Amino acid sequence: MHQSRIRNFSIIAHIDHGKSTLADRILELTDTVADRDMREQLLDSMDLERERGITIKAQAVRVAWKGHQLNLIDTPGHVDFTYEVSRSLQACEGAVLVVDAAQGIEAQTLANAYLAIENNLEIVPVVNKIDLPSADPDGAASEVTQLLGGDAADVVRISAKTGINVDQVLDAIVERIAAPAGDPDAPARALIFDSSYDQYRGVIAFIRVVDGSFETGAPLRAMALGTQFDAEELGFMSPSRVPVQALVAGEVGYVITGLKDVSALRVGDTLTTRRGAAAKEPLPGYKEVKPMVFAGLFPSDSDEYPELRDALERLKLNDAALFYEPETSQALGFGFRCGFLGLLHMEIVRERLEREFDLDLIVTAPNVAYRVLERNGEWREVHNPSEMPAELEEVEEPYIRASIIVPKEYVGTIMELNNERRGTFDHLEYLSPERVHLIYELPLAEVVLDYYDQLKSRTRGYASFDYDLSGFQSGKLVRVDVLVGGEPVDALSLIIHREFAYDRGRLLVEKLREEIPRQMFDVPIQAAIGSRVIARETVKARRKDVLAKCYGGDISRKRKLLEKQKKGKKRMKQVGGVEVPQEAFLAVLNLDGDKKK
Amino acid sequence: MIHNAGARHLYVHLPFCVHRCGYCDFVTVVGREAQHGAYVDALLSELARESGSLAGAVDTVFIGGGTPTFTDPDALRRVLAALPSAAEVTVEANPETVTEELAVLLREGGVNRISLGAQTFAPRLLDVLERVAGPDDVRRAVHTLRDAFFDNISLDLIYGIPGQEPSDLDTDLAEALALAPEHLSLYELEAKPGTRFTHAWGDELVRQSEAMEGYFERVVETLTDAGYRWYETANFCLSGDQAAGRDLRAHHNLGYWQGRDYLGVGIGAVSTLGEQRRRNGASIGRYINALGGSAGGKEPPRELEQLDPLTKAQERLMLGLRLDEPLALGGLEHAIDRGGLERMVAGGLAVVHTECDAGDEQSLSLTNRGRFLGGGVTAELLA
């Protein structure tokens, strides 16, 4: 199709504002999917996505509307995936910004809108859920025009659920969003904005052709990584794969690469051809994503280590941002230190491992990446508290720029929470007379544990939150070790601001005393900074553990009971002869929740 | 091997009860008075079929239930008459069933040891357990048996009953000691899953478990102070001067704890013969059909379990460590976790003895504290 009749767009929205529902309606309205095949939220193909109501992996669907080819490029809707969102946006000329008519603008709405503006996209504002009794379409529309400028009359008011005015959204896309501007005769260049892995066909790259054209069978090269392969198949999604002979400038589609290693092709890289004139300059913007949140993943049953390794390998195929390396813990045995983009990313990986691979995991408390200046004057990155050297010059931790939107009566609450979390106030602005946008600098470490839960519970769910990494800053951080039965439990070490070390240490040992079952001996539990003990508790020894009676009739049953007891012990981790149940390793996660009780 | 020579211990199960107590998970039959005769016919038929598994001389016979003494007297008499003679013949009895007539019947039938289910002397706790007998029934039963010249009486007591205070336990122990039984069994109440009792009292038992933690220590201290030997986890007997030279341990049960073969007959009865353990089905109807009636003489429904050498060794360890005498470790090495053993020895819970005059043969016993934690210690020791 001629470039002038192509429109490439994304839908961006805060979580639950109706992005996926709008996408579903668009597929129906354009007859891309027959009604009977329509499943709710068709684009979210992973179970987990459906359940959590979020889209994890972007996809692209081609639809036809009034003689035009529209390519809907779906974006992940969460802060952890900002980089993926920005790649998806780069493949578009416009974005439909969906705002809930009852909720108004939220933190992710802002973050996504700013991203779209940075990418020079035409924004088509849409107020959704106008059929809700609590809807305030005028209020939401005025928040939108305050943010973007323009006329409230240009805000399309729809109900994606019932389909009201969805056709107007499609018309607006055709009218307002520019056609792609690439040069069809220039050397071929395409942006990889997503990829997935097919067991039989290898890596499938989703691309936006910027210049020139790509033909089936052509030899291709990824410019940043240098990976070479042949285009086994080209095509577009509608919504399943439809092969075509060629993809031309302005079009969006997929390439089946046959590559068996997903890391050979990275989102953000530029594809060009090795036949004829190859492009000299890659498209701008490629960067490697760096994990900022780390946690140890260990199989509950140490026999499952190979299964965990295989599962991580397979997940990595579809999730290039996932980082992992083998880790050995005295307490937890063999496992992996994994790096994630953020907390949601970690939660998703963990759930997928447990659900799709049927693994029983112990996940240690998450920590951030630290930069340590050693005595020898060298900087190195530390991903694990137990690796933090005792002797050092300086430690830096990552900071974020947090963006929080709340009704104005919660401003005090938010300030209080952020002060507890070592936050620095930057500024605030009124989005409307009722709603305030606060900007804070916060150490990422203060956010990774339970910040989001606290934010939600202290504002009765009204606060919305988003963040950007803003760089590393030096901090007064210490390593607190936990000793059980006199032996340090590496998996429980934590890095914390000096000021909070005593409180944390005391809470932690108290919590562990509750979690560690009484044993045959007294078990001291200590928290220490270096060799200095800062808190201590004791689990008193049991006084009785016997099978009341055992005669000829029940020897088999009693033997099985003992075998079970023995097995139960095996599932617990031995630390210095003490059986520590898996829950104890999670104790550190719940400290603040308990403090309030 | 001992089993080649046949089992020297015989267990006979008489399942009938007047009422099924809430906490009970034994194979029992309530009502069905009309079936006592037919059941005993079948039982005797099984005993005749299996007599080949018995040694020429039997050491002990144990008649358990149910409430064996609730069985119709003629039927009970026929069972006793069919038994091989043995040095120890025990019958379990409920206090309310003990009459002069019964005592004479048992005496004449060759019974020389009675195990009496007293459970507790507190009326309100007996109610909780749904026991029929009252405290006076227990005392009266002991006197009746003494009058019939029974000189080996064991009392069963239960502690850890919902609502039982420390003072209740002290009273129970004092009441029991006042009757001067030769032997005492003290069981912590086990709320077994699926019983009516667990349904009614399970939560309460969990709540009070911490408070009752010291009860076991209290039991052992009181009874050993009174001169009883704590010879097995839950069992005590008079010893030394008070025993007048007799070994008053329950020899039938010692057979189990020392890993010897035994034959069990009757519904739900278990036998261990060499490498095979088998359990008769629990259905009285099917049991009678198989062994009695016109079809007569068929094997009753049974479950079989093959005991491999490792399992045998694990059981030796599990059972042997319940006793106060050291357990010889010869042949059990492969069942023992050396690391666990070292931890238990280092922690003062177990002691390894080396007999120099017996070719450096090693044996293992638990310390007093180790015996209180016997289950956990055994789990540590198992490889």
Q: Can you put this structure into words, describing what you see?
A:
The complex is a heterodimer of chains A (597) and B (383). Chain A has 15 helices and 34 strands. Helix content of chain A is 26%, strand content 33%. In chain A, the strands form 7 sheets. In chain A, strands 11-10-16-7-8-15-12-13 form an 8-stranded antiparallel sheet. Chain B is α/β, with parallel strands linked by helices and 383 residues long. Chain B folds into 2 domains: 9-256, pyruvate-formate lyase- activating enzyme; 309-381, Arc Repressor Mutant, subunit A (Orthogonal Bundle), CATH 1.10.10. In chain B, 37% of the residues lie in helices and 21% in strands. Chain B has helices at 36-50, 73-82, 100-108, 123-129, 135-147, 166-178, 196-208, 215-225, 251-257, 284-291, 309-320, 338-346, 368-372, 374-381; strands at 9-14, 16-17, 29-30, 60-65, 88-93, 113-119, 153-159, 183-188, 228-232, 235-238, 263-265, 270-273, 276-280, 302-306, 327-328, 350-355, 361-366. Chain B has a 9-stranded mixed sheet with strand order 9-10-8-7-6-5-4-1-11, with helices on both faces. In chain B, strands 12-13-14 form a 3-stranded antiparallel sheet, with no helix packed on it. In chain B, strands 15-17-16 form a 3-stranded antiparallel sheet. In chain B, strand 9 (228-232) and strand 10 form a beta hairpin. The radius of gyration of chain B is 21 Å and the shape is globular. Chain B starts with 8 loop residues before the first strand and ends with a helix. The chains are: A alpha+beta (597), B alpha/beta (383). The A-B interface holds A 520-521, 542-556, 558-559, 562-563, 565-566, 569, 577 and B 9, 11, 26, 185, 187-190, 213-214, 216-217, 233-234, 253, 255-257, 262, 264, 268-270, 272, 277, 279, 305, 311, 314-315, 318-319, 322, 343, 347, 349, 371-380, 382.
